[in-house]
Specification:
Blueprint lengths: L1 E3 L5 E3 L2 H4 L5 H14 L59 H17 L3 E4 L9 H8 L7 E5 L4 H7 L5 E5 L5 H6 L2 E5 H11 L1
Parallel strand pairs: 3-6, 4-5, 4-6
Antiparallel strand pairs: 1-2
Length: 200
């Protein structure tokens, strides 16, 4: 199949990558797995055994009229531990490479179907200015754009990073969340070919 290049011409792409059916369940799984992998999971609280002190029995077992107690660090007591204390957790989810690639193909195909994928010859900016980048983005009709390039471009990176809805990524940094989050995805012809080599 052929994809139109914004400033004239076409680029040939594999239908297996850019023309397959949308698998919503698989895409959802890939997005959730990616976001879960970014969680720190470092929250921690102390149980009765973690709180310092409380080693000796505060008073004898019988004869005081009080409820029996074996430690001053009981969760029922002031300065005691937490009953169901949070522990550091690993939130990462396993997603097979084959499933991840299938999800990415599904996302790219849906972007093409919804006409949200724009292919350009090159991403260039004369100077690293937010104003210049904003003027460039107006050509795409929205400022909510993901810019994808095959080579690092300092001017584009610096010009776009202060715009709240604009993101610049290399092909190697592509992820399902960034692809589905933005209104438009602008890719260079070379980056489209790299994606095709990766997913074909």
């Amino acid at each position: 199949m052929e994809l139109q290049v914004a400033n004239g011409g076409t680029v040939s792409v594999d239908e297996a990558v850019f023309g397959r059916d949308f698998n919503e369940g698989l895409v959802h799984q890939a997005v959730v797995a990616y976001m879960a992998g970014g969680r720190a999971g470092t929250k921690a609280q102390k149980t009765r055994s973690d709180v310092s002190g409380g080693g000796s029995k505060p008073f004898r077992q019988k004869g005081t009229g009080r409820a029996r107690a074996g430690t001053t660090r009981s969760p029922l007591w002031r300065h005691g531990g937490v009953i169901f204390a949070a522990r550091p957790r690993d939130y990462t989810q396993k997603l097979n490479k084959k499933m991840y690639r299938a999800a990415m193909k599904s996302i790219f195909s849906e972007l093409v179907r919804q006409e949200r994928l724009v292919v350009v010859d090159a991403l260039e900016l004369a100077e690293a200015k937010t104003k210049s980048m904003l003027a460039t983005l107006q050509a795409f009709g929205t400022s909510d754009v993901l810019l994808v390039s095959d080579i690092d471009n300092a001017n584009v990176l610096l010009g776009s990073r202060n715009l709240p809805y604009c993101e610049f990524l290399l092909v190697s940094e592509l992820n399902p969340v960034s692809l589905v989050r933005h209104e438009k995805v602008v890719m260079t012809s070379a980056s489209v070919q790299k994606v095709q080599e990766w997913l074909a």
